[in-house]
Design a protein that fits this description.
With about 150 residues, the chain is of the alpha+beta class. It contains one helix and nine strands, in the order αβββββββββ. The strands form three sheets. It has a five-stranded antiparallel beta sheet, with no helix packed on it. Strands 1-6 form a two-stranded antiparallel sheet. The longest helix has 18 residues, at about 10-25.
Length: about 150
């Protein structure tokens, strides 16, 4: 169909549709993260500053932030501990090394042996989220986690 000016009537509608799609993509199409994430830095050591002996040591940050709704809740953040320095590294909740949801967390640890199986190197209270005395608040900045020896 042609307008009296010789241009296409369809072209303005096509351009408007394209601009609408571009606008939705730029706005993120509603894919906003429901929680803000904070990188975790810090160390895990015994209270005498000695390093934990294990083949691998995993740290988990269990968020205490309530869910936004029944289907939207913050995921735990899981990372490894560098056994040579005690440094917490690459904690991941949602995307690789994104950190943890802002707020308060209970912290658990799991040591693993060379066979990849859980090892009995830590007190039971540090491995169970229901009784762990370990906590971390993202507003505190660095996570300084100190354990009593078994």
């Amino acid at each position: 169909m042609r307008s009296s000016g010789g241009g296409s009537v369809v072209a303005p509608f096509w351009r408007a549709g394209l601009l609408g799609i571009v606008g939705l993509v730029a706005a993120g199409c509603g894919n906003q993260e429901p929680f803000s994430y904070r990188k975790v830095t810090g160390t895990v050591k015994y209270d005498d500053e000695s390093l934990i002996q294990a083949h691998r040591l995993e740290v988990t940050f269990h968020p205490q932030t309530p869910p936004k709704d029944p289907k939207t809740y913050p995921r735990p953040g899981v990372g490894d501990v560098d056994l040579a320095t005690g440094a917490i590294k690459e904690v991941t909740s949602h995307k690789y090394a994104d950190g943890v949801a802002a707020g308060d967390h209970k912290v658990t640890l799991q040591a693993y042996g060379a066979d990849g199986e859980p090892a009995d190197h830590l007190r039971a209270e540090y491995t169970d989220v229901s009784i762990t005395p370990l906590t971390y608040r993202t507003s505190d900045g660095t996570a300084t986690i100190r354990l009593k020896k078994k």
